Amino acid sequence: MVIIILGSKSDLNWGKEIGKHLNNFCVSYKIHIASAHKTPEHLLRILKKYESSNNPIIYICVAGRSNALGGFVDSNVVHPVINCPPYSEKYAGLDILSSLRMPSGVSPMTVLEPDQVAVAAAKILGCSEAKYKEKILAFHQKLRNQLLKDDEEVTVG
């Protein structure tokens, strides 16, 4: 199960895009909105609910501008956390730095694209669940087949 946490409703399209790619691997997910800056108590309640589960959980945090969300979540859970911040033209992408530099002991991963974060989540789940491992293997084979086909189409001589 993947829990996508958005810093605000303005991140919803990015979260839905992640969900679309998770569907390709048959990974179930839920989307929540909670801000580390504005609603930390609400965020802690959400985390407590999922942390009490015995099921494998991966948190994907989507927050633009100053991303405290991923670090806050990571410091309060035992399951993997992946930041997937939406790109901002306004800041020429420099807001990514708030997803990369973390205090000691806080270690969320950062993946920049919705399709790539879905692959990362499926791979993590595949470490303990064979059905996701099989989906990843099939996904990689499809990529290889497409590259071979593309090579045949463009090879001259």
Automatic annotation (TrEMBL):
The organism's place on the tree of life at top rank: Bacteria
Biological processes per GO annotation: 'de novo' IMP biosynthetic process
Pathways per UniProt: Purine metabolism; IMP biosynthesis via de novo pathway; 5-amino-1-(5-phospho-D-ribosyl)imidazole-4-carboxylate from 5-amino-1-(5-phospho-D-ribosyl)imidazole (N5-CAIR route): step 2/2
Alphabetic keyword roster: Isomerase, Purine biosynthesis
Enzyme Commission number(s) from the entry: 5.4.99.18
This protein's record includes keyword Cell division: no
Residues given in the record as substrate binding sites: 8, 11, 38
Coiled coil region boundaries: none
Limits of the PurE domain: 1-147
One Pfam family it belongs to: AIRC
Role: Catalyzes the conversion of N5-carboxyaminoimidazole ribonucleotide (N5-CAIR) to 4-carboxy-5-aminoimidazole ribonucleotide (CAIR).
Protein family membership: Belongs to the AIR carboxylase family.
The protein, known as: N5-carboxyaminoimidazole ribonucleotide mutase
